């Protein structure tokens, strides 16, 4: 296809503003998929994505469109992940296209992810067409949202289109806007091959499938190509496009987006953002390439230790398809064998954990998520700390640095006070506060470790779900951090140890031991529960001994009640782990770490 008749674009939106529905509608209205094959949300392929309503892996579709001017165009849509955990993938895939549709729910308005995603699009020099969606709903207010887009984002909303992705209203106008408002790609068809690796995933029949955007030159079947970041050479077996089903083609030229397969075994061998060229060609790599780095670590242990090998198998399989997920074996005195895993963020962690539990049927104990600390020793060396249990002796440590984020929060006025308090409680430093209509735009500098555990939950609950949140990593800064250990019956439970700020250690320690006291069932003996820093106990509770058999309180001969209680005890036992002589239920690990 001639460059002048190609348009490459992505859709950016806040979660639930209708990105997938709009994509489906664009595909459907151009007959890219036969009506009977159209299942809702074509682009969200994984079940889990559909269930959670979030888009994780970038996907793509090629749409043929005959415009009102009678000319035929090829429109390539790259679907970008919508969540902050995948910000790096978003920013990479944006660089593969020239424009974006900015979908804003016209009943809601601009939200934090709208902003974050627009910034990625602007960074990638995109032309942006605002789309005001859900105009079929009575609460839709297009002029208010247009004003917001101009005031908050500073984007001209005069070319915006009012759409209902549900009824199809405004869809043709959207397609026309893609053709007339977005620029055609540029590229040199006769130059040496230069392609960007946009995404890759594992397919059990074809091996790794690599999504590419051709910048210059041509890519043909059978050719040998080189991945510049690691110098590997691959023979191209297939090339093709997505409509959205895979369809083979003979070649891909500049401006085109398609896939290649080349007997690549693992997704880890492909790096998003890498530059691909012919084996013998030399080209300057695309700028800004860096592999995605895990920022949140936690331990995953099977509840049933006999399932360790099954867990290994599950993790190996998941890692094949997810290069940003890292893992290494870990053994813990309390939890036995498991894995220390690294994730891009909390959502990524939850998705992987859910998949292991659901698809592989392994119950897991998840230890407290921890960020990566930089521990500077007195001898001048620095090491990364992925697990609080590995914290070296404090007397050898010079100082500790922790990652900080810039958090952007949009919140209706009436909840602003609660949001400021929450951020302040989490050691935040306010860096900006402005108003957009009846909402405040708050920017905070926060330690990532105060955010990883339950910040989203807290934010949602103090604002009744009306706040939206996004963040970017800012770098490392020193602070007074210490390791807090938890001892149950005088035995340290390493899975519960955590890094905390010194000034907050006592409050956290107290909250932790009080919670554990409620969560651990009584035993036949007295159990001390303590929080300590180094050798110093900072909080202590004692769980008193159980007096009688639990069934004793069911006086009379109610056998079924008695049976129920015993069953309940048995079920409870299944999910418990033995620590020395104490049983700790699985929920204790997660609940104990939540702050109130
Ligand atoms: P993520 O993939 O989770 O980022 O969400 P999304 O932005 O793709 O949103 P999605 O398309 O899943 O739409 C969210 C909800 O809004 C769904 O229940 C849709 O059915 C609904 N929806 C989308 N567009 C419209 C519309 O134009 N009108 C109405 N009434 N509902 C819509």
TrEMBL record:
Keyword field contains Iron: no
Annotated localization: Cell membrane
GO cellular component, one term: plasma membrane
Gene Ontology process terms (BP): positive regulation of translation
Sequence ranges assigned to domain Tr-type G in this UniProt record: 4-186
Gene3D superfamilies: 3.30.70.240, Elongation factor 4, C-terminal domain (3.30.70.2570), Elongation Factor G (Translational Gtpase), domain 3 (3.30.70.870), P-loop containing nucleotide triphosphate hydrolases (3.40.50.300), Translation factors (2.40.30.10)
EC number: 3.6.5.n1
Positions annotated to bind GTP: 16-21, 133-136
Role, per record: Required for accurate and efficient protein synthesis under certain stress conditions. May act as a fidelity factor of the translation reaction, by catalyzing a one-codon backward translocation of tRNAs on improperly translocated ribosomes. Back-translocation proceeds from a post-translocation (POST) complex to a pre-translocation (PRE) complex, thus giving elongation factor G a second chance to translocate the tRNAs correctly. Binds to ribosomes in a GTP-dependent manner.
Name under which the protein is recorded: Elongation factor 4
Organism for this UniProt entry: Octadecabacter arcticus 238
């Amino acid at each position: 296809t001639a460059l002048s008749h190609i348009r490459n674009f992505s859709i950016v939106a806040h979660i639930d503003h209708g990105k997938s529905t709009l994509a489906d509608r664009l595909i459907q209205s151009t007959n890219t998929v036969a009506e009977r094959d159209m299942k809702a949300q074509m682009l969200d392929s994984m079940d889990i994505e559909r269930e959670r309503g979030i888009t994780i892996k970038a996907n793509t579709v090629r749409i043929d469109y005959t415009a009102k001017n009678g000319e035929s165009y090829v429109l390539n849509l790259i679907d970008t992940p919508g969540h902050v955990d995948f910000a790096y993938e978003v920013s990479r895939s944006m660089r593969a296209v020239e424009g974006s549709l900015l979908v804003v729910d016209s009943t809601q308005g601009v939200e934090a992810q709208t902003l974050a995603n627009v910034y990625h699009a602007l960074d990638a020099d995109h032309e942006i067409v605002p789309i005001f969606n859900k105009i079929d709903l009575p609460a839709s207010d297009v002029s208010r949202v247009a004003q917001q887009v101009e005031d908050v984002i500073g984007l001209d909303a005069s070319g915006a289109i009012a759409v209902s992705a549900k009824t199809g209203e405004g869809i043709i106008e959207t397609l026309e806007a893609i053709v007339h408002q977005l620029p055609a790609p540029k590229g040199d068809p006769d130059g040496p091959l230069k392609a960007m690796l946009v995404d890759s995933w594992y397919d059990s029949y074809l091996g790794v499938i690599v999504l590419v955007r051709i910048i210059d030159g041509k890519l043909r079947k059978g050719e040998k190509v080189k991945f510049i970041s690691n110098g590997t050479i691959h023979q191209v077996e297939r090339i093709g496009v997505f409509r959205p089903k895979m369809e083979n083609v003979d070649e891909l030229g500049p401006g085109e987006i398609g896939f290649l397969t080349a007997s690549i075994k693992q997704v880890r061998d492909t790096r998003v953002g890498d530059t691909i060229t012919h084996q013998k060609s030399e080209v300057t790599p695309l700028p800004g390439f860096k592999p995605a780095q895990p920022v949140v670590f936690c331990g995953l242990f099977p509840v049933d230790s006999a399932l360790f090998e099954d867990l290994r198998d599950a993790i190996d399989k998941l890692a094949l398809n997810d290069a940003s997920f890292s893992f290494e074996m870990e053994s813990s005195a309390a939890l036995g064998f498991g894995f220390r895993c690294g994730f891009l963020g909390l959502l990524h962690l939850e998705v992987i954990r859910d998949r292991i539990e659901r698809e592989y049927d392994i119950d897991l104990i998840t230890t407290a998520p921890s960020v990566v600390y930089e521990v500077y020793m007195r001898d001048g060396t620095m090491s990364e700390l992925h697990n609080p249990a590995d914290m070296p002796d404090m007397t050898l440590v010079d100082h500790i640095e922790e990652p900080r984020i810039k958090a952007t929060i949009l919140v209706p006025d009436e909840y602003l006070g609660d949001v400021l308090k929450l951020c302040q409680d989490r050691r935040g430093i306010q860096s900006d506060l402005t108003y957009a209509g009846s909402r405040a735009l708050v920017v905070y500098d926060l330690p990532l470790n105060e955010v990883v555990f339950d910040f989203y939950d807290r934010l949602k609950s103090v604002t009744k779900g009306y706040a939206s949140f996004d963040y970017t990593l800012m770098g490392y800064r020193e602070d007074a951090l210490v390791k807090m250990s938890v001892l149950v019956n005088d035995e340290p439970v390493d899975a519960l140890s955590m890094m905390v700020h010194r000034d907050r250690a006592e409050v956290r320690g107290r909250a932790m031991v009080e919670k554990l006291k409620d969560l651990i069932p009584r035993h036949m003996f007295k159990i001390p529960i303590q929080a300590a820093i180094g050798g110093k106990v900072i909080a202590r509770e004692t769980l008193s001994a159980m007096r009688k058999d639990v069934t004793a309180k069911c006086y009379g001969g109610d056998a079924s009640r008695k049976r129920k209680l015993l069953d309940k005890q048995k079920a409870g036992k299944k999910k418990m782990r033995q620590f020395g002589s104490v049983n700790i239920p699985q929920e204790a690990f997660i609940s104990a770490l939540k702050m109130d």
